[in-house]
TrEMBL record:
Protein name: Peptidase C2 calpain large subunit domain-containing protein
Taxonomic lineage of the native organism: Eukaryota, Metazoa, Chordata, Craniata, Vertebrata
InterPro entries: Calpain_domain_III, Calpain_III_sf
Domain Peptidase C2 calpain large subunit positions: 6-63
Superkingdom of origin: Eukaryota
Organism of origin: Neolamprologus brichardi (Fairy cichlid)
Length: 68
């Protein structure tokens, strides 16, 4: 990443960081809702398509809650 924090993630990022959730099955459903409990930190969400090198539009909504 460049100094502004934007850019492509390099291969070493994926070697140093394991996925929290790696979905192996794809669905033709338009809506997918998942609930995850995560430790505080920074996370990267990477949408993907079934076929590699295919672009698609994604709408992503993230709701957060603290247990304070």
């Amino acid at each position: 990443m460049n100094s502004a924090g934007h850019g492509r993630l390099q291969q070493d990022f994926f070697q140093r960081n394991r996925p929290v959730k790696a979905e192996k099955t794809y669905s033709s459903e338009q809506d997918l809702i998942e609930l995850h409990s995560l430790e505080p930190g920074e996370y990267v969400i990477i949408p993907s398509t079934y076929e590699p090198n295919i672009t698609a539009d994604f709408a992503l909504t993230v709701y957060t809650k603290t247990d304070e």
